[in-house]
C-alpha cells in the first residue's frame, strides 16, 4: 500500500497532474496543426505541379525541401516512394573513389556492346594520367543485356580496367533514366569527397583542359561549389508527337507541347550537392523515360539549381564537328558530338596540339613541334 499523503501533498500532486495533462493536450494540438499545414502545403504544391502537365507524371511529385526536418528536429512525414530504384549491382567498383583527395568524378553513359567507344574515352580525354592532373577519375555506367557473350566480355573488361558500374536493369533506350539514377546513386554513395561531377555520353569528345580552365576561372570563382549545373540548356524544346520517331512522347505521358527548360544530356557538369539531392528526390518523382529532361529538368529544377548556360561551348551536329573545331580560333568549344571514332582521335590530336600538349597531357616543346611539321600556322 502507498503511504497516506497530507492534504498539502495531495493538492500539489493534483496540481502537477493538471499541468502535465494541459501541456500534453497543447503539444498534441500544435503537432496536429503543423501536420495539417504540412499536408495542406503538399496539396497546394501538387496542384501547381499538375497544372498543365500529365497527372500520371506529376501526381506524386513533392518539393525536396518538404522532406527536411522541422525546427524541432523531427522529420516530417515523407510522401510515398513512387520511383524505387530497387536494382542490384552486377559490378560495383567501390575503390574508384577511394582517394580522399579526389575533386572530380566523371561518369559516362554507355551500353554493354560499346567497348570501342569506351576505349576511345580511356585513350583520349578520359585517360587516367590526364584526369589525375585535375584530381579526377572516371567510371562507365551501364545496365545488363541478355547476350551472355556481351555480359562475359564486360566482366573481363571490368577485371582489366576496374572502371565499370553495372546494375541489373535492362539496358535499353527507354531505360536511360534508370541508368542516370544508377549514376546518381553510385556517386552519392561512394564519392562524397568530390566537388564536381561531369556527365557525358560515350560518343562525346571533351576538351577536358579547356573545360577545367573554364570551371576554375569562371564558374567556381563566381558560383562557388554549390547548387549549379553547367550545360547546353534547351529553353523551348518541342515535344515529339511523331509515332515513327524514337523520341515520340504520348499525350498521356506529357500533355504540354513544349518541355520546361532542361539540359542536353550529351554532357553537363554539376556540383556534388546537386547529384546527392537529385538522387534523394528521384524516389518521389515518378519515372519518365526522357532521361535528360527527367534529370536536369524535373529533378534539378525542384532543387533551386542555378543553370549556367554554356551553349556556345557545344557542337552537337556530328557532321560538322571536325570543321567547327578547325574554326574555333578562340578555343571556346568544349564538347563535341562525333559519330566516327577515327574523327574523335584526329580531333583529340588537334585539341592537344593547339595547347602544346601531348595526348597524355604532357607539355611539348613548340620548337620541336614546328621542326617535325606537326604544328600548323593559325
From TrEMBL:
GO annotations of cellular component type: Golgi membrane
Q: How does it sit in the membrane?
A: Single-pass type II membrane protein
UniProt-listed Enzyme Commission number(s): 2.4.1.-
InterPro entries per the UniProt record, alphabetical: Glyco_trans_31 (IPR002659)
Grouped into one coarse class, the protein's main location is Golgi
Report the Pfam families cross-referenced here.
Answer: Galactosyl_T
A GO MF term: glycosyltransferase activity
Instruction: Write out the annotated subcellular location.
Output: Golgi apparatus membrane
Root EC class: transferase
- Please indicate which superkingdom the organism of origin belongs to: Eukaryota
PANTHER family in the record: BETA-1,3-N-ACETYLGLUCOSAMINYLTRANSFERASE, HEXOSYLTRANSFERASE
Record's family? Belongs to the glycosyltransferase 31 family.
Q: What is this protein called?
A: Hexosyltransferase
